[in-house]
């Protein structure tokens, strides 16, 4: 398998891509929360009996969207102040590591161990990069591991990955 991680990977560009995606998600969610709030407080949604719950449901939705927007804003601030580390090939994995994993079938995937925004998918020069956090099952397994180590994920199916490259 050809390595997806090149020696000259620009992790700052990856961080800027993460921040840009989070800002876009934040703007979209903020707009949705405002729309939900407007629906919740609209005069047509004032309940006229105990079964008229549209306004209440819209207010719950608006609150959930506002909470998620706040989480995204905190993630943006965290990534803006994040110190990126350049890892030697034999270094132990920790926060800000970009890791190439390979499964038994030879399929490669790239993951970036970040402080927040777990599950975010980005397109990069090397392919798709998934952001994971130390709180995720894969993040927990990767912490402290090195190139050549195997990590195992147990779920419906057990999957094993080899750590092929770190930067």
Structure, described:
Helices cover 38% and strands 20% of the residues. The chain is of the alpha+beta class. The protein has a six-stranded mixed β-sheet. Helix 1 packs antiparallel against helix 2. The longest helix has 31 residues, at 11-41. One of its GO terms (molecular function) is translation elongation factor activity.
Summary, kept brief:
The chain is an alpha+beta fold and 167 residues long.
Termini separation comes to: 17 Å
Helix-and-strand structural type: alpha+beta
- Average pLDDT, all residues: 87
Q: What gyration radius follows from the Cα positions, in whole Å? A: 21 Å
Count all strands and give the number. Answer: 6
Strand residues, percent: 15-25%
Keywords: Elongation factor, Protein biosynthesis
GO molecular function, one term: DNA binding
Protein name: GreA/GreB family elongation factor
Question: Helices, strands, pairings?
Answer:
Layout (H helix, E strand, L loop, with lengths): L10 H31 L12 H27 L17 E6 L4 E6 L7 E4 L2 E6 L4 H6 L7 E4 L5 E8 L1
Parallel strand pairs: 2-4
Antiparallel strand pairs: 1-2, 1-6, 3-4, 5-6
Helix pairs in contact: 1-2
Features:
167 residues, alpha+beta, Chitinase A, domain 3, six-stranded mixed sheet, elongated, DNA binding, protein biosynthesis, GreA/GreB family elongation factor, GreA/GreB_C_sf, translation elongation factor activity
């Amino acid at each position: 398998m050809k390595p997806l991680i090149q020696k000259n990977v620009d992790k700052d560009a990856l961080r800027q891509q993460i921040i840009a995606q989070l800002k876009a998600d934040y703007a979209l969610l903020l707009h949705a929360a405002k729309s939900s709030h407007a629906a919740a407080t609209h005069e047509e949604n004032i309940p006229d009996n105990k079964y008229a719950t549209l306004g209440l449901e819209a207010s719950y939705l608006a609150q959930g969207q506002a909470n998620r927007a706040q989480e995204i804003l905190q993630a943006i601030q965290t990534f803006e102040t994040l110190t990126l580390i350049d890892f030697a090939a034999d270094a132990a994995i920790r926060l800000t590591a970009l890791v190439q994993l390979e499964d038994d079938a030879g399929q490669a995937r790239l993951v970036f161990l970040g402080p927040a925004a777990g599950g975010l998918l980005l397109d990069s020069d090397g392919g798709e990069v998934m952001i994971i956090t130390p709180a995720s099952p894969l993040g927990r397994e990767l912490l402290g591991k090195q190139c050549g180590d195997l990590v195992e994920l147990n779920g419906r199916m057990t999957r094993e990955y080899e750590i092929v490259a770190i930067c």
